[in-house]
Sequence to fold (266 residues):
Amino acid sequence: MFPLVVANWKMNPLSVREAKKVYTDIKAGIRTIKGVEVVVCPPVIFLPELAKEKRSVRMTLGVQDLSSEEQGAYTGQIASAMVLEYKATWAILGHSERRALGETNEVVAQKVLHTIQKGLSPLLCVGESERNDEGAHYTFVRAQLEAVFAVLKRKDIEKLTVAYEPVWAIGKHAEDAMQSPQLFEMALYIRKLLIERYGRKIADHVRVLYGGSVKSDNVTDIVREGGVDGVLVGSASLNAQEFCTVVAKVAGVQTRVSNGALRMGV
Ligand code: PGA
Fold:
């Protein structure tokens, strides 16, 4: 298992031509970077075109949401079978920008369950909108995670990746990202919840990422001091050069998952 860097392009760019350019530039830029896994999640409409590009062992495609339904009368939704046809193997689920549109913890949990059942990898986003001195953010994140734990079978937990994205830190400048000591505490808390419920062996396979104003300037600190296994990158992932620098920097940090011990099941 390697650290993971995920690009969330959100509703960008506006043309397939630009999408292809960023995608191929990222692919070329990370060609020689070893020891890190990269996933690019464009708007689904660009998938058919991007899927035509030659596959790269280091980089896969994902989507930014996925229906929990197989098929049918679900206006505007996208089924797992549709995206699998275009080689997308990851799905960002429960992003705060989708939760803001009304997705509940239970809806997100069903999406995670369905995604795993269909053989895709879910990237479950959790994170509070605000913090207070009583630590309400811990309770909030725990409820988001427990809704998912409630529907997943024990054997499926290790297929999960969690992205901790405090809503207040999204879409800002590098200096507004979460400070690494606070991130370290939350990453530890998420890991503790996993360990308490499933034991160390299973919990160790769940990567915990951070998202929220990650840039090439702050990523080293975030990953090294924040104790996470990678990052989810929004706006900085639309600039191929900047994103490739983020990937290179993550590859340069010794993380919990990068020494190969987990990969070998030690
Ligand atoms: P940002 O977005 O990097 O632009 O803050 C991150 C996200 O929302 O996934």
